[in-house]
Amino acid sequence: MVTNKVGRSVPSFIENLGELKPYAGVFATPPTGAHYAPPIRRHLGIGMGAGKKFLASLREAILASGLKSGMTISFHHHFRNGDMLVNMVVDEIAALGIKDLTLAPSSLQNIHQALIPHIRSGVITAITTSGLRGELAEVLTRESLLKSPVVIRSHGGRARAIEAGELKIDVAFLGASSADVYGNMNGIHGPAACGSLGYAMVDAQYADFVVGITDNIVPYPALPISIPQTQVDLVVKVDKVGDPKGIMTGATRITRDPLELHIAAQAMRVIEASGYFREGFSFQAGTGGASLAVAKLLKESMAETGLRGGFCTGGSTGYICEMLQEGYFSAILDTQCFDLAAVESLRTNPRHVEMSASYYANIHAKACTAHITDIMMLAATEIDTAFNVNVLTGSDGIMMGASGGHSDTAAGTKLRLVTAPLIRGRFPIVVDSVHTVITPGECIDVLVTERGIAVNPAQKTLKEQLNDFGIETVSIEELQWRAEKLTGKPEPLAQSEELVALVEYRDGTLIDVVRRIL
Amino acid sequence: MSNRLRRSMLFVPGNNPALIIDAPVFTPDSIILDLEDAVAVDQKDAARELVVSALKTLDFGVCEVCVRINGRHTPFFAADVSALVPVKPHALRLAMVESAEDVACLDELLGRCEADAGLPVGTVKIMASIETAKGVMNASTIALSSPRLVAMSFGAEDFTNSIQSERTPGGHELLYARTAVVLAARAAGIDPIDTVFTLVEDDAAFKADVRAAKQLGFAGKSCVHPRQIALAHEVFLPTPEELSKAERVLAAYTEALERGAGVVAVEGRMVDGPIVARAQRVVDIANASKSLREVRAR
Amino acid sequence: MSTLIKRCAQAGSFESGDVLVHVAPSPEKLAIYIKSKVGPRFSSSMQESVRAVAAELGVTAASLEVVDSGALDFVLRARVATALRRAIE
């Protein structure tokens, strides 16, 4: 074990994973190597007609892909908790007697608890993902079931690893809500519409073998083309790729919770004082109650003053799309749609476009939006007195969230605001030391809670700007004290020395680990 | 003459832990922890215990903390008062006050409890709520009935029942009663507080209602939801006179500190810690509102 | 002379931020069972608070079951006091 730049003890070698480098700073570790390229092969469909590319069953597709034990398979998570694909494919793979696989989805949800028996039986022996939730996450945090710890990667980090060949995908199983028999795919049309396929694009480009799976075959060519036929080896039709109810809602509502609205109002004042709220500003709303409410406050202010924004990035919701439609923003660069209103906007508004996870957040992309954005709203399960942020594990040390785009955007955005209630379920948000570091403190500018605002001491100018504006700021230690005065100090977690997860920073170095919870 | 702002008085159900904890976050001028209408009869003891525990432990910041106790003729009245006095709420709010005698009764019980608790007599203040025709008719004597009285509020729901009428959007049926409460309170030098507005979703209508109340001379508004607080404050911005008085208090205090004077007097009245703090707050509020307006205008 | 628990009683609720406290008579000692929605990290301090409130009321023998939904200490103390008082009367 070595100590990295955020003071965390991380391993330098793990069996089955190889040598590992410790986190050395936000942009400290230079890239090496070249882009990975999948092998060129004579296509099954050539000279034999369309029938061979379009297969009748998942089973046939798995056999045709050449999938063998020990290989790596990938999926995207655009069907969220309505996904039926991952479970279906792994069931089929297990039935074929294939095992010892590395599972490499872009993320995992509650619904993937169905994988637990396959993990116990050795069908899946390694996992890399952005997030873990529900029972699957609980089991993987409490038991050492895999041959190596789970590798947690950010959205940008996963794209980087795939492009660099560090995460070599043997077979990508990519769901689409619409596809044609030659493999053009999108998430816009069809009963399981999910919008942007941003997290699938990198897999499609770099995986050795790509299987497109849909429940909705359309006449050739399937337009719009989010994933082109030139990247897809096989197409399969199944009854259902996902449950629409679990995929998304009709429209994301802005919170009415008074506490979240209060936090949003505070955050808005910080944004106003920061100097970044100016003509052409770019914005990422993030997820979570307060951040969309901030979008509403931005709109109200912009309506009054006539200020107009530039692009919005990250994921899209109906509210942001409406702002685009009404001219408040100039474009949306979208990796993920969160509701049907956003899907509709993607379909109809030419200024709303899909982008891949690499375009969004890959540190080694020639440009990514995470490095260009002005204002970013971030969440936190915990934040410590060095401003390090945790979004992966909860107060019980169990994995319940995802690295997501957090560390990617925090590295490059100009104003990084974390909004959170100071206390959540009796636990203070501000702690001595976060259980898991996802984003290093030097990437965080302000913490906005309902009981006070703290500015990172490294941001002296910002602090002065806020104070000049009439915003009272306190030290983060003061916020911790305010929280503990209400809650008391929790007892330390009981954990073993065994590692159940490694947290890979966006550049491939190790920023932290997750230990098994007793 | 009151030195405390009471532009917003937020009602908080006394048996609801989460709402009690969050109340100060919204910075109402006053918080009213409710042991009366918001609490079921079989939970009166639980609510009382919870409010006492909260008063003992929590820091409510700059908010004035009041407790609306059960009425004089209920079995809970005496237990509420004797349990609360030792934990020193700023004031007790008595509902359905109809006569000076109602207030006198509470005043006397408070005196006994304060003595038992070793507190100076007069520590706990009283707010009287006028909610019936009889109460309105007796408003002026009620307003003068105790040196503990700091505010008198008007409750429209029960009032319209007592005059056998119904509430209308225009509020015509309330005009005399509201004015009577304002006059009685102002004449006695205490704060008149207007009734609640229950259409929580309608911000515009709420603000119109508060503007009407301000115009009638009310010092503040009872609020039933946190979102009403900011709106009420917008309407009840400190007046230029309040602002200049606060600035004079602060100037005198600063000057006295520099002189090394032990006691500060402003216009013949002694000024100490809490009064200086409140003056600072009035100035801060005016400044904060000013800078927000300036930013919006850019 | 310790205070006698005459009957079963309870106070509080399952609402977020509250506790439900159930008191029952017990022959000899103070038995405290705590089940918390937020895990074990406050269980020692919760035990201490329950004991302290029981002691304040002079209760040395009772069975107390606490189901916690993330309540702060002052809420726990209030609910324990109410449940005990209801069981004493």
Mean pLDDT across residues of chain A: 95
What oligomerization state is this entry in? heterotrimer
CATH fold field value of the largest domain in chain A: Glutaconate Coenzyme A-transferase
User: Proportion of β residues of chain B?
Assistant: 15-25%
Can you tell me the overall shape of chain A?
Answer: globular
Low-confidence stretches of chain A: none
- Which CATH architecture of the largest domain in chain A is right? 3-Layer(aba) Sandwich
Radius of gyration of chain B: 19 Å
**Strands in their spatial order, largest beta sheet of chain A:** 5-14-13-10-6-7-8-9-28-29
- Could you tell me the strand content of chain A as a percent range? 15-25%
CATH fold descriptor of the largest domain in chain B: TIM Barrel
Q: Supply the helix-strand structural class of chain B.
A: alpha/beta
Report on the architecture of this protein:
The complex is a heterotrimer of chains A (518), B (298) and C (89). The relative contact order of chain A is 0.14. Chain A folds into two domains: 50-247, Glutaconate Coenzyme A-transferase, CATH 3.40.1080.10; 258-493, Glutaconate Coenzyme A-transferase (3-Layer(aba) Sandwich), CATH 3.40.1080.10. Chain A is globular. Chain A is an alpha/beta fold and 518 residues long. The mean pLDDT of chain A is 95. Chain B folds into two domains: 8-235, Phosphoenolpyruvate-binding domains (TIM Barrel, Alpha-Beta Barrel); 240-297, no CATH class. In chain B, the strands form two sheets. In chain B, strands 1-2-3-4-5-6-7-8 form an eight-stranded parallel beta barrel, surrounded by five helices. A two-stranded antiparallel sheet of chain B has the order 9-10. In chain B, helix 9 packs across helix 10 and helix 11 (240-259) packs across helix 12. The longest helix of chain B has 25 residues, at 273-297. Chain A binds chain C through residues 395-396, 425-427, 486-488, 490-494, and chain C through 16, 37-45, 70-73.
Features:
heterotrimer, B: 298 residues, alpha/beta, TIM Barrel, eight-stranded parallel barrel, two-stranded antiparallel ribbon, 12 helices, 10 strands, disordered C terminus, C: 89 residues, alpha+beta, Ribosomal Protein S5, domain 2, four-stranded mixed sheet, 2 helices, 27% strand, globular
